[in-house]
Design a protein that fits this description.
- The protein is mostly beta strands.
- Helix content is 4%, strand content 48%.
- Strand 3 and strand 4 form a beta hairpin.
- The longest helix has 5 residues, at 71-75.
- The termini are close together.
């Protein structure tokens, strides 16, 4: 994996993305679900193109972008504060938010499951088959 020079911490089997305290300001839906996060270190964008799970109020709901399945669950994250974002090197992603809300995205065998883009072009991508690639223009 290339170095991501945005404050992302490499913890061995996962990366901790520096978005703690960010607020989910906007949710966009097309054939994917995109969250816009406003953080002290700049704006981040999380785009989920494969199925993911939103846990809210103790209920897990599978969101399938493009099919319309459970899109209302994706909206539960709007205005939540991010507590922690972890990108696992096997391609999975977990974003924990205030009030116990969590977004969990597994890797996809055939597609890029998710992309997380940060300030100044920093980027993490879940590659098809389960691996994470990361880079930044200044790395």
């Amino acid at each position: 994996m290339a170095q991501v020079a945005d404050g992302t911490a490499d913890e061995g089997d996962h990366l901790v993305v520096p978005v703690a305290g960010a607020i989910v300001e906007l949710v966009c839906v097309d054939y994917a679900v995109t969250y816009h996060l406003s953080a002290t270190n700049g704006m981040w964008e999380l785009r989920l193109e494969s199925a993911f799970v939103v846990t809210s109020n103790g209920a897990e709901r599978l969101v399938v972008p493009g099919s319309g399945a459970n899109l209302s669950a994706a909206l539960d994250v709007l205005r939540a504060e991010v507590v922690e974002a972890v990108a696992y090197k096997d391609g999975a992603l977990r974003v924990s938010c205030s009030d116990g809300i969590e977004v969990a995205a597994p890797p996809d065998e055939g597609y890029e499951a998710w992309t997380l883009t940060g300030p100044l072009g920093a980027r993490l991508v879940s590659l098809p088959g389960g691996e994470v690639a990361g880079w930044s223009p200044d790395a």
